[in-house]
Fold these 4 entries.
Entry 1:
Amino acid sequence: MVLLAHVGLAQGRGLGLGLMIGEPTGISCKGWVTNSGAIQLGIGWPSTSHTGGTAIAAEYLWHSHVFRSRESFPLSYGLGAIFGVSNATNTFGARGAFGIAWWPRGSSIDIFLELNPTLYFRPSSTFEFDFGFGARYFF
C-alpha cells in the first residue's frame, strides 16, 4: 500500500481504479510515476477468442497532450505484456499500447480507449489487435 500511495502522489492525479471491456475484461488500475508516465494494470477474463480463464495485462504508458482544448484528451503509447491462465493452455504475449483518454475538467475520472497490437506466444505464435475501453476513478 505504501508503494501504491507513492505512485499515486507522484503526478498529483492519484491512483485510478475502474472497469474495462476488451482484453482483458475486468478491473483496470493506473498509477502515475512521473508527470507523463504511468503504469497500467488490467485483470479479468480474456476475450471470447481465447479459452477462458484469467488474464493479467501490464503496460508502461507515456502521455502526450497533442490536442489543445478546454478539456484534456491526452494520447498515450507504451509497451507491456499479457499473461493468461486457463484449463486448456497458458498464454503469454508482448504488446504495445496506443490510446486516447478524456479527463473531464474538474473531475476525478478518466474515460479511455486503447488499441493493443499483441504478439502471442502460444504453442504457435499469433499476432492480434486487442482493444480496451473503460473508465477509472482517481483517488
Entry 2:
Amino acid sequence: MIPLFIAATGQNVGKTTMSVGIVNYCIRRGLKVGFIKPVGQKYVQVGDITVDDDSLFMRDIFGMKDDLKAMSPVAIPRGFTTDYIQNRSKYAHLKDDILRAFETVSKDKDVVIIEGTGHSGVGAIFGLSNATVARMLNAKVIMVAEGGIGSAIDEIVLNAALIDKGGLEIIGVIINKVLEDKYEKIKEIVSKDLIYKNYKPMGFIPYRSFLTYPHISQIREKTKSEIICNGEHMNDYVENIVIAAMEPQNTIAYLTNRSLVITPGDRIDNILVAISTHLMGQDEDIHVAGILLTGGFMPHQSIITLLKKTNIPVMITKADTYNVASQVYSLTVKTQPSDGAKVEIIKDVFEKYADTTTLMQTLGL
C-alpha cells in the first residue's frame, strides 16, 4: 500500500481538486483507493459523528465504503485550539486516533490519498501539522500551489522546508488555477525553476471559472437570508453579480446570463427590470439566477405575486447592500457532491493536464 499526502501552499489552493483527480485516475486504472483527511477544519455533523466535509464529499462522489469516521478522524471544532493549550493531556489520544484510522482505511488498498489542511504548518499548534502527519504516516508528498511564478515558487520553497525537515520525499509539484492567457509562459518558467531546485513538475492545471460559480443556496447560507419564493430553484449557479443600486435603465446593461441581482427591497424599478429581462431574455439565453433583496424591505404583495410567477428564487435580508455584496464576493465556493458537472470537469482537466504517467511511475504503480 502506498500512502500519498496531498500538501499545499495554503488554503483553497486545490488539494481536494487534486485528490478527486488522483482518486479518479487510480480507480480507472483498476486500483483500490482509500481516502483520509486526518485533520479537518471545516466539519459537518453526520448523525452522531462530526467529520470534515471533504471526507464526506469524497465518500459520496466515489461511493467509498470505508467508515466515515476513519476517513476523518480529527475534526477541529470552534474553540479547539484554546482548549488544547489549556488542557493538553485531554488530547493526548489524537495521534493514536489518526494512526488507527489510517490503518482502517488502508486495509486491502493499493494507494491511500491523504489530504492535508491549509499550508504545511497548519495544525502545529496542537502537534499535528501537515508535515508531522505526513511523517507519521510515512507518506510520499505532492505539493499543490496556485498559478503564478515568483509567488508560487516562494510559497513552494517555504512549505517544502517543513516537509524536507521531516525527511520526507516531495515526489512532485502541481501548479493549479493557471490563467489561460499565461499558461505556456508559467509552465515553461516554473518548470525550469522547479527542476533547478530539484522538485519534479507534475502538472499545470488551468483555471476553470465554472468551478468558482456558487449555487444560490450557498449565497443564501452565507448571507443568512430568507427565501421569499421559488425556493425549488436554489441550486442554480451564479456567474455574474449585479449590484442594482443605479437607475433601472443602467441596470439592464449589467444583466448577463445567470446574474444574481442584489438590490434594496424598495427598489421596485430594478426588481421589475430583473423580472422583464429574465422573461424577455430567454431567447437570448439570459437567465436571472436569483434576486437578493437588502435592507429588510419587503416588496408590495403585487410585486411578490409577479415574482412567484417566474422561476427566479428571491431572498431577503435585513443587512444593507454593501455588507451583503461584500459577503457574496468573499464567498469561498467548494464543489458539492450534487455538482455533477463540476466533478466531471475536475476529473477531465486533471487527466488532460496532470503528468499522470510520471505520477504513476514515481509511485511504482
Entry 3:
Amino acid sequence: MTRIIHLYESPDRFIVGTVGEPGERTFFIQAKENRRLISVVVEKSQVVALVERVGFLLREIKREHPNVLAKKALIDEGALENPIIEEFIVGIIGLIWLGDSEMISMEFQALDDSITAQDSEEIDILSDSQEGPDLLKVIISPAQAEAFCLRAMRLVNAGRQPCTFCGLPLDLRGHVCPRANGYRR
C-alpha cells in the first residue's frame, strides 16, 4: 500500500489530549500547522514511554548543548482542536535528535497488523519509503518538546486514582483487587 507521510515542521500546536471520562479515555496526539490539522490515536502507555524518552533526550541535550534549552515554550493548556478525526492508530514511535538544526523529530507510524515481530527486526520501520503504513512526522524545538511532555504528564496523572492495596486504577464502582483475593475495593 502507498504510504502517506504527514509532515509538520514547527507546527503551531503539538499536543496530547483525551476524549472521554477517566478509565474510558482515548488519547490523541494532535498537530496543527496553519489550517492543516491531524489527530492520531495513541495508548496511554505510549504517551508515558514517549515522555520518558523525550525527557532522557532533553537531559542529554542540556548536558551537551546547554544553550539550546535556554528558551522556554509556553505549555498549551487548550482543548483538542475540532473536528477530532482519527487519522490512524499509532503502532510505532520514533524519536530523533537533528543536531544540525537543533530540532527534535518525532515520528508516529500507523499500526500495521501485517508486520509481525519477526518482520519488524528485518525492515526499517520508520523509513521514508513510498510503501508501508502511514506516518506522522513532527519536527519541533527542544522547548516545544519540553512543553509537550509537561502537558502530557499532567494529562496522564489526571486519570483514575490508584487502589491503595494493589496500585491498579480504580473504576467509579471500585475494582476487583488481586490483593484482596478478588473482592471489590
Entry 4:
Amino acid sequence: MLLFRYLSLELWKNFILVLLSLTGLLLLTRLVALLVELSSENLSYYDFLRLVLYLAPLFLTFILPLAALLATIFLFLRLSQDHELLALESLGVSFLKLLKPVLFLSFVAFLMTSFVTLKYLPWSKKAFRSFLFELTERKIEKGIPPKKFMSLIPGLSIFVEKAWGKGRHFALVFMVDETSPEERGLIFARRGELFTRPGYIEFRLFEGSLHLASRDLQKIQEMNFEEYLYRLDVAKLEKSRRRSRGEMSLKELRALAAKYPPGHKKYLYYLTEYYQRLAFPWAAFILPLIGAPLGAMVKASGKGAAFFLAVFVYLVYYFLQSASSSLSQAGTLPPALALFLPNIILSVFSCLLIWSFLKGKIGRGK
C-alpha cells in the first residue's frame, strides 16, 4: 500500500502538471488568435470566461490521453534512472505490481475523456456557435457602420454609404440575402432605418428595388417599393440553425443514421462520428500502459527524449484513428470495426510490450 501511494503521488503530480501546462498553452494560443478577431466586440470578463469554458474541451479531448501517457513515461523514466526499478525488482516487487497505480490512472483518465468526448464537447460546440450568434446580434444592435460590408447572419450582408444616429439611420443601402435555399435576393434602397427589440431585428427601407433570382438563375423577379420592411426573427433563426454532427448527442447521431439505408453516404457519415466518440476515450486507458515499459527503456537522460517518444506514440495512434475514420466513411470497413481497430492494435502492442519486458527480452537493467 505504501508503494502504491508513493508511485501514485508522483504519477498524479506529473499528470496534473502536464495537463495544466498543455491545456493552458493551447488555450492561450487559441484565445489570442480569437480575441484578435473579436477585438471590436468589447468583450466583458464574463464573455472571456465563457470563451475559456467553450474552448477547453476542444483541447482536453486530445490532451487527456497524452497527459496520462507522459505522466507514466516520466515516472518510469525516473525509476529507471535512479535505479529504483532494479532495487524494487531485487526485493521481489514485480513489474506488474508497479503497474497498479498506472491502471488506476488509466481508468480515471478514461472516465474523464469519456465525459469530455460524450457530454462536454458536443455541448461546448453548440454553446460556442450560439455565443458567436449572440455577438452578431449585439453588433447589429450597436448600429450599422458606414462604408463597410457587414455580415449580419450567415447568408445576409449589408452595406451602407452613410450612417448617422448611432448607425440606426442610413442612406444608400445595399443588401444581399442568400438565406433561402431556393433563391437569392438583392435589395437597393435610398435610405433606411434599423429597429431592434428582444428577439427581432427590423430594417425599414425606403425608395428602393428588390431583385429575386432562383439558384439556377432561370427565374428572375424585380419590383420597386416605396417602403419595405425586412424583419429578422433572431430566436427562430437560432432554433432553426442546422447543427453540425459534432454538436449532436450519441442518441441523435444514431437516430439520423437510422434514416438512411446501410452503406449510404449519410449513414456512414453519422455512424463514423458515433463510433469515433465511443472509441477515442480508450486511448486514455491504453496509452499509459504502453508508457510504463517505454519509460523504463529510455536510455537518454532528461525528459526531452521521453517527451518526444510520447508525442510520437500519440501521433501514431492519432494517425491510425484518422485512417480508420476515412475507411469508415468510405465504406471500406464497417464503422464499428474501423474505429475500434486502432484500440485493438494498441492493446495487442501494449500486452506484447509488457510481456517482453517481464521476460527480459527488452528493457533496461534486464
